[in-house]
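Sorry, can you check?
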Amino acid sequence: MSPVPAFTTQRPQQHNLLLAILALAVGGFGIGTTEFAIMGLLPDMVADLGVDIPAGGHVISAYALGVVVGAPVLSTLGARLPHKRVALALMALFTAGNLSSYIADDYGWLLVSRFVSGLPHGAFFGVAAVIAASLSAPTRRAQAVAMVMMGLSVANVVGVPFATWLGQEYGWRTMFILVGLIGVLTLLLISRFVPHQDVRDGASITRELGALKRGQVWMTLLIGTVGFGGFFAVYTYIAPTMTDVAGVSESLLPIVVALYGLGMVAGNIVGGRLADISVLGTIYWVMGSISACLLVFAFAVQWAPTALLFVFLVGAIGSSLIPSLQVRLMDVSPDAPSLASSMNHAALNTANALGAFLGGAVIALGWGYTAPALVGAVLAAFGLGVALLSGRMDRKNTTAETVLQTVSR
């Protein structure tokens, strides 16, 4: 499979490369913070706005809907623009959306502001991944992409707890000011450290949309949707699982969430290194590992020490899938990498909804809080099956191309 083409004639020095990736990762940190911190501030928000909890949940759903809509639309609209300019425009929209959320004085305004804040989410990660990959050596593309995604993982360890504390102490709206400031910082860093890249020859909206005609793009998105759905089936209900099944005190739940976050950081690093060795091989290994880990988790969660260990492992193994999926999407759509890459985050948000829905369904049936892990194991096994089928299709195409080349000679 052809690697993503480089858009610069000369790669930046290592020091400048790290600064460029750091600038993009700071944007990911802000995005991760605003996406998840609002969940911890939900009671404060609904009390202030005078709405009930389900209505407050719609504010969270509005952001996720923005991600799903914005990923393909904004990536396509930016097809004919330099990647740096697209990244700046997306981060400006993200910053404006969060500042609008801060001043929103009624529920409807907040709902629209959160939708707007979610629009640039997937598109930003998509173009950031393409920039990072194109600036790096071909053998280190996945590690560069993983470093950009690291901002999202670190947000779960540092940004979300701090923003939650800040909102609880000084009002839930202050979280949006914090994220807005992170957005402004990102704009400054991208302007200073991310180099200009010329638009690809032949780049167009039509060519970007061509990515949606490729079966392998949809196969990869399906892998992420069902495979990561298992991760979210567990993560969504982790609090009651740990307190009611493992017997962990509610006061220790911040440690549980931190363990998840630390696992995600570790998995992101390892996943990037593995993907640089073999993208499809990493997807196979990770999907099988997620299924096995979730299966054991359903039993290990009965005891607090093993439950805490597997919280870390589930976070680590699940997040190690993201770099390989990101690179795989760019590889299977080399002439439209931005759209394909951005769709990964639309797929992950769909996985979030799928995992939460199926996990809640089995709990509602009375199967207990360990049942979502078993559902997740089945989803991951299905994801592995899709990955194996995708790899088989690759091998058939490669064989067919070899035969045609031989005949033409």
